[in-house]
Design goal:
The protein is built from 12 helices and 8 strands. By secondary structure, it is of the alpha/beta class. The chain has an 8-stranded mixed β-sheet with strand order 3-4-2-5-1-6-7-8, with helices on both faces. Bound molecules: adenosine-5'-triphosphate and magnesium ion. Adenosine-5'-triphosphate (ATP) binds next to helix 1, strand 7, strand 8 and helix 8.
C-alpha cells in the first residue's frame, strides 16, 4: 500500500465538466469510496464546488468548518470530517466573506503526503473550475453520452489543456439507451481523449442518494459499483479482474478498448511513483 512508503507521492485528481448534473459529485464520491473501501487507500475528498456544494448533503455531514474557512485562514485540518472511511472536506453553501479560491492548490499541496489520493469535486461554472484545474495533478472529464453534454463537457478539457493539467480520461456516466447515444469510439474520435469508464444510469442511485451512502458501500455488486471499482483499480495501480462478459466474449471491441485505456491509466500510476 502506498501509505507505507516514506516519501509518498499523492495524486490530486479532479472530476470536472462544464455541465451541471452529469455526475461529477457522484463520481468523485464513489471513486473516493472505492479507493478507501475496496483498495484500502487513504483518501481526502474535497468539495470545491464553491457556490453550490453538494458533498455535505450527499453524506449528511455537519459543516460547521468548511473549505471556505480553510481558504480564509482556518487550518484545513479543522474542516475534515470522516464518512464511510473517507476524510471529507465539505464546502459552505452560505459563506458570506470573500475567499481566494486560488489558494486551493497551496492548501491541498500541504496535505499531499498524508493521503494516497486527494479527490476534488468541482462546479460546472467555468470561473470556479479554473482553481480546481490549477490544483489538480490530473483531471477526469465526466460526461453523458449525448451530443449536447459531450460538447459542453469538453470545454473543461480545453481549459485543462490551456492550464497544462494532464487529462486522465473521460468517464461516461448515465448511459441510458446505447442505441441512441454515442458509443465509446465516437466519444473518443470527437474528444481525442480515452474513455476510462462507462457507467449506466441506474435507478438504485436514487436509493444511495436517499440513504446518504455511496453505492459502492450500499451495494458492492451493483453494476455501477463494479464499473467504479474497475476505474478505481486503474487509478491506484491494482490489476483488473475480468468480468463475466469479458470472459465469454473476449473479442468484443469496446470492452477491450476500455480495458486497454485503463491499463494506460494504471501504467501512468506507476510512472508517477518513479
Ligand atoms: N449513473 C447514475 N445513475 C443514476 N443516477 C445518477 C447517476 N449518476 C448520477 N446520478 C444522479 O444524477 C443527479 C446529479 O448527479 P451529481 O450531483 O453527481 O451531478 P453533478 O455533475 O455533480 O451536478 P452539479 O453540476 O450540479 O454539481 C443526482 O441525483 C445523482 O444521484
Ligand atoms: Mg456536483
Amino acid at each position: 500500500m502506498l501509505s507505507s512508503l516514506g516519501d509518498k507521492m499523492s495524486n490530486i485528481l479532479a472530476f470536472v465538466s462544464i455541465k451541471g448534473g452529469v455526475g461529477k459529485t457522484t463520481l468523485a464520491l464513489e471513486t473516493a469510496s472505492s479507493l478507501v473501501n475496496d483498495f484500502g487507500k487513504k483518501v481526502l475528498l474535497v468539495d470545491a464546488n464553491f457556490s453550490a456544494p453538494n458533498i455535505g448533503l450527499y453524506l449528511d455531514l455537519t459543516n460547521e468548518v468548511t473549505l471556505h474557512d480553510a481558504l480564509s485562514g482556518t487550518l484545513l485540518h479543522n474542516a475534515i470530517y470522516e464518512s464511510h472511511g473517507i476524510d471529507v472536506v465539505p464546502a459552505s453553501m452560505y459563506y458570506r466573506g470573500e475567499v481566494n479560491v486560488f489558494k486551493l492548490k497551496q492548501i491541498l499541496n500541504k496535505f499531499k503526503n498524508r493521503y494516497d489520493f486527494i479527490i476534488i469535486d468541482s462546479s460546472p461554472n467555468y470561473e470556479e473550475l479554473k482553481p480546481v484545474i490549477a490544483a489538480a495533478d490530473k483531471i477526469f472529464v465526466v460526461t453523458s453520452p449525448d451530443n449536447v453534454t459531450l460538447t459542453t463537457s469538453l470545454k473543461a478539457a480545453r481549459l485543462a489543456r490551456e492550464q497544462d493539467t494532464p487529462i486522465g480520461g473521460i468517464v461516461v456516466n448515465r448511459i441510458r439507451s446505447p442505441r441512441h447515444e454515442y458509443n465509446l469510439n465516437e466519444i473518443e474520435i470527437i474528444s481525442e481523449i480515452p474513455v476510462v469508464a462507462r457507467i449506466r444510469d441506474h435507478k438504485k442511485m436514487a436509493q444511495a442518494l436517499n440513504d446518504k451512502t455511496p453505492m459502492t458501500v450500499l451495494d458492492g455488486a451493483n453494476v455501477v459499483s463494479r464499473e467504479v471499482r474497475r476505474f478505481a483499480s486503474a487509478i491506484c495501480g491494482n490489476p483488473e479482474k475480468e468480468n463475466f462478459f469479458q470472459k465469454i466474449i473476449p473479442f468484443k471491441d469496446s470492452f477491450q478498448k476500455e480495458r486497454v485505456n485503463r491499463e494506460f491509466l494504471r501504467q501512468g500510476f506507476y510512472e508517477s511513483q518513479i
